């Protein structure tokens, strides 16, 4: 049985309960916080780079896809300029497509039942990204 740990997301100070041994990116997805990870979890693309703040205040940059949850963590999620690492923005939004189901299979089923759902699914996710 895995133990539960607290994960705090900054700057919003949102605290999540996550299971020990889960990757950080999986824990975030479980709570509708989505990071890009083009390397399929190998930690090579740098798209899911996050800054962890340990309980003693020390900071560590790591890939969310390779970081395992072992203790209580605080994570700062920011959009940064790749050249100078300046913080551009910080925001998280729940995938609006979840109204058709929490998983891709459910969404495919919704499209099978009503074909124009595909256009709607595309529009609502684009609107969320552009927001």
TrEMBL record:
Domain 2Fe-2S ferredoxin-type: from-to ranges: 5-81
Source taxon at top rank: Bacteria
InterPro entries named in the record: 2Fe-2S_ferredoxin-like_sf, 2Fe-2S_ferredoxin-type, Beta-grasp_dom_sf, Raco-like_middle, Raco-like_middle_sf
SUPFAM superfamilies (UniProt xref): 2Fe-2S ferredoxin-like
Species whose genome carries this gene: Desulfopila aestuarii DSM 18488
GO MF terms, alphabetically ordered: iron-sulfur cluster binding
Protein name: 2Fe-2S iron-sulfur cluster binding domain-containing protein
């Amino acid at each position: 049985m895995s133990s539960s740990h607290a994960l705090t997301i900054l700057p919003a100070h949102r605290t999540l309960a996550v299971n020990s041994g889960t990757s950080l990116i999986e824990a975030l997805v479980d709570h509708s916080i989505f990071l890009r990870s083009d390397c399929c979890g190998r930690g090579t693309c740098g798209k899911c780079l996050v800054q962890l703040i340990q309980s003693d205040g020390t900071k560590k940059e790591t890939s969310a896809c390779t970081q395992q949850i072992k203790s209580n963590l605080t994570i700062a999620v920011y959009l940064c300029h790749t050249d100078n690492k300046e913080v551009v923005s910080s925001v998280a939004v729940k995938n609006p497509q979840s109204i058709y189901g929490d998983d891709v299979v459910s969404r495919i089923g919704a499209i099978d039942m009503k074909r124009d759902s595909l256009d709607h699914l595309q529009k609502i996710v684009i609107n969320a990204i552009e927001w």
